[in-house]
Amino acid sequence: MDIKTTTQTELIDITDRVRAAVRESGVKDGICVISTRHSTGSIIINENERGLRNDILGMLENLIPENKSYAHNQIDNNAHAHLRAVLLGMSETVPVEDGHPVLGTWQSIFFVELDGPRKRTVNIKIVES
Ligand code: ZN
């Protein structure tokens, strides 16, 4: 799945596209792994509410500020983005039951852009069990 991000940091809801991929796979029971191959992007699952999306980005800024003297910034300028990606992780796994990803009412799947804007790729792997 290709994603074009438009700002430096943002949460992009990809739940509908994951649901569609599970539906198109025909898998009724199994697992769905959503991953990204980028070192400055992440996959997370949480509630898609505007205030919370801003709180998540605010938390990342507080925990890992952009302007600190990071060693990686001697050869690049985005150490904060890598560190935030380490914190959030590069994949999530959800069960598939009755042909649908098992998510709670308030759970959405996000790609998190941490060093945008860029063109990004998310991989969805569905395994039948
Ligand atoms: Zn870098």
Structural class: alpha+beta
CATH architecture: Sandwich
Which sequence of SSEs, written as H and E, runs from N to C? EEHEEHHEEEE
CATH homologous superfamily (4th level) name: YjbQ-like
CATH class: Mainly Beta
CATH topology category name: Jelly Rolls
Low-confidence stretches: none
| Distinct ligand kinds | zinc ion
What is the percent of helical residues? Answer: 25-40%
- What does the largest sheet look like? 5 strands, antiparallel
SS field, number of helical segments: 3
Estimated share of beta-strand residues: 25-35%
Describe the structure.
Helix content is 27%, strand content 35%. Strand 5 (91-97) and strand 6 (100-101) form a beta hairpin. The mean pLDDT is 98. It contains 3 helices and 8 strands. The longest helix is centred in the middle third of the chain and has 14 residues, at 50-63. The two termini are 23 Å apart. The protein has one domain: YjbQ-like (Jelly Rolls), CATH 2.60.120.460. The protein is an alpha+beta fold. The chain has helices spanning 15-25, 50-63, 79-88; strands at 2-4, 10-13, 30-36, 41-46, 91-97, 100-101, 108-113, 119-128. The chain is elongated. Bound molecules: zinc ion.
Task: Give me the secondary-structure topology.
Layout (H helix, E strand, L loop, with lengths): L1 E3 L5 E4 L1 H11 L4 E7 L4 E6 L3 H14 L15 H10 L2 E7 L2 E2 L6 E6 L5 E10 L1
Antiparallel strand pairs: 1-8, 2-7, 3-5, 3-8, 4-7, 5-6
